[in-house]
Amino acid sequence: MLPYGRQSIAETDVEAVTRVLRGDWLTTGPAVGAFEAELARWAGGVPCVSVTSGTAALHVAYAAAEVRAGDEVITSPLTFVATAATAALLGARVVFADVQPDTGNLDPDAVAALAGRRTRVVTAVDYAGHPADYDELRAVADQAGATLVADAAHSIGAAYKDRPVGSLADLTTFSFFPTKTVTTAEGGAVAAADPERHARAARFRNHGLVRDPAEQREPDVGGWHQEVHEFGLNYRLPDVLCALGISQLRRLAGFRERRRELVSRYNVLLRDVPGLTLPAQRAYVSPSWHLYPVRVRDGRRREVYDRMRAAGIGVQVNYVPAYWHPVFADLGYRRGLCPRAEAYYAEELSLPLFPDLTDAQQDRVVETLAGILV
């Protein structure tokens, strides 16, 4: 089965991991800081906190934004459920705003219509690797007195109006799952420009521990002393995975370029295939394509999905609207809430896209898809 996404592991990646395995630190060692520094270079110089997954990154970001019970978090339903679930786990009420019909990104006008005095956070999702409209979302968040969060699980290395993802929101989360552009096997990170938010994120990912005597309530107990002022969790990313991340980040420019080439080829090869809508791109955005999301019109998405899979081509659907999951339905969320997101989902199909995809494999995907639709 040709997958829709997969990691690209080179000998340099293996050597980087092996060096750590032969060293003194498997976790909480020097590779962690080195990885965070390398990631900050891609995030416009914004300091980063590494964590164990993209889901952990969202949880940490919401904690750093001081999301509490009774707060509202406005986000897109066209995302993996973790974007909303991690806010709900902190006691927030998740408010789903509709998306732009072409990019699938959060619609600033829809957010503005829902924002109010309880809005603590507005979370955009850079769907497929195409950054959201951050200037408009910033204006809405500032008007509401809310923190702007970017779920950039798809968009590492991308830019919006020549500004890198990581520097566009108050807090930005990344994911390094194997299907993503850069992988640490499992892993994630939070970029936070504000020192206080960065400190809260760093504490939350490490049980909430306070080790600096200047910040402790009883600083003179002894050198072993540590305190917990607010609860946190163990979301530490170990050195062995950070070493892989450092090596992968050094290949990020090449990964992005190959994905761009493949997207350009898809655009040319599929432009005349009937019944398809190809992904949109804003002129002021430089995407970092994680997905190639086509729209299959005329109610044929299920048929095309099944026939492509039967032909050994691992297409995927991204995503079931978050509030369609029973956990949200049981909380009273109903279908029809965000009609544009639901219409997007009804047609969406992600074609294989990863750096090691060959032109011949891509041609096979196109020929199979065209043969079904023509």
TrEMBL record:
It comes from the Bacteria. The active site is at K180 (proton acceptor). It holds the Pfam family DegT_DnrJ_EryC1. Its cofactor is pyridoxal 5'-phosphate. Keywords: Pyridoxal phosphate. The modification N6-(pyridoxal phosphate)lysine is found at K180. InterPro entries: DegT/StrS_aminotransferase (IPR000653), PyrdxlP-dep_Trfase (IPR015424), PyrdxlP-dep_Trfase_major (IPR015421), PyrdxlP-dep_Trfase_small (IPR015422). One of its GO terms (molecular function) is transaminase activity. GO terms for biological process: polysaccharide biosynthetic process. Belongs to the DegT/DnrJ/EryC1 family. This is dTDP-4-amino-4,6-dideoxygalactose transaminase. It comes from Nonomuraea polychroma.
